[in-house]
Design brief:
The chain is mostly beta strands. The protein is built from one helix and 16 strands.
Length: 256
Amino acid sequence: VIQTSDYSYQTLPQLTAGTIACAVDTFNNIVYYHSGGTMYQYDIQTQIHSVAYTNANPFGSGKYPRMEFDSDTKHLFLSNNSTSIKEVDPTTGNVVASYTIQGLVNGSGGGDLAFPPSGERYLACFSGLYQLDFSPGNGVIQASRISAENMPYQLTSAGYDRQGFIYSCTNDAQSKMLKIDPNDGSYVVVKTFPMKINDLGSVVSFSSSICTVDTDNDGVCDELDDFPTDSTTCCAQYTPSELGSGSLAFEDLWPS
């Protein structure tokens, strides 16, 4: 478990089986993880592992590294090393929809899915971070690359925080964690972990559980306030993004 406040981490009880794909159902406090042909579930509160369903590989054979739980449909979304996504009912293991992704420069290699509550959909793979658009319909998803073409890292995972940033770890024995701004693909390396990280699953914090203090009494709790001690301001806006930089051009005699 990684805390995005200071990137500290703790190890949970041993998994029933090794895995490279996990997803979190925050509403029911369940972590799904896949290994071989079985989908397991871990109850966060009771710390009990159990089998969710068997025959858990809709791609036939091999491993799929990308998995996410969608809070709207209450379904799992699985993706293999190519351009396929399967939507699965976790209560039965049945595939309810199949999708083909268009627009990936190279869809192979590792990666993960991230579906934050904002409604945006993201896919990370070795060629970078992509935004997914499900609107074309007919089982087609359009992918648009957010990260730069020359990104020096191969991404193995994707998660998110409540500020809208995407987190992704790299394909290294000591994984680097990148904090990525999806507005322009800018990023910073925030942590290097002493292990390989193949997948991230995000646990949503409900506002009722974190909004306990409002130091400046401006109506925005400290956890969500960019300026918790200034009652006149609560948020900041950045151009092009908080992590990125831009150029400002003007005439030599400006503003004459």
